[in-house]
């Protein structure tokens, strides 16, 4: 069993609630109130989990400025009241931020018993 300190519980709770509200907002056909709350919780939870200084350094790296601009611009557009356009910006920015990480994840999933078989089927991944 993993024991967490109270501050870690709050940090993980904020991030979890953010993901929940974002998912639920998309399921309910891009409800702008749920998406806005989810964005605020997710960004706040992320900032507390990895630390404010690391968050600032991550979001303001020179090579990732385009990705961060799309992601934070999407958050702003959702908060203004255009949820569909904002979520498209956010998803595009998220993929730009973590595009190098996705290959690592696919490589790891390829080594798992069931998922590796599925990824090696013709026409799926390679």
TrEMBL record:
GO cellular component: cytosol; endoplasmic reticulum; Golgi membrane
InterPro entries xref list: Got1, Vesicle_transpt_Got1/SFT2
Location(s) in or outside the cell: Golgi apparatus membrane
Keywords: Golgi apparatus, Membrane, Transmembrane, Transmembrane helix
Gene Ontology biological process terms from the UniProt entry: endoplasmic reticulum to Golgi vesicle-mediated transport; retrograde transport, endosome to Golgi
Membrane topology qualifier: Multi-pass membrane protein
Predominant location: Golgi
Transmembrane spans: 12-30, 36-56, 68-95, 101-121
UniProt record similarity statement: Belongs to the GOT1 family.
Function: May be involved in fusion of ER-derived transport vesicles with the Golgi complex.
Protein name: Vesicle transport protein GOT1B-like
Source organism per UniProt: Neomonachus schauinslandi (Hawaiian monk seal)
């Amino acid at each position: 069993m993993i024991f967490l300190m109270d501050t870690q519980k709050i940090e993980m709770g904020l991030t979890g609630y953010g993901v929940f509200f974002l998912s639920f907002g998309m399921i309910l056909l891009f409800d702008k109130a749920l998406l806005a709350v989810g964005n605020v919780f997710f960004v706040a939870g992320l900032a507390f989990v990895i630390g404010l200084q690391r968050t600032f350094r991550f979001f303001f790296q020179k090579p990732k400025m385009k990705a961060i601009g799309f992601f934070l611009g999407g958050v702003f557009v959702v908060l203004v009241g255009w949820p569909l356009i904002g979520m498209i910006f956010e998803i595009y920015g998220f993929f730009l931020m973590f595009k190098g990480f996705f290959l690592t994840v696919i490589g790891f999933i390829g080594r798992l018993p069931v998922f590796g078989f599925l990824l090696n089927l013709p026409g799926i991944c390679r």
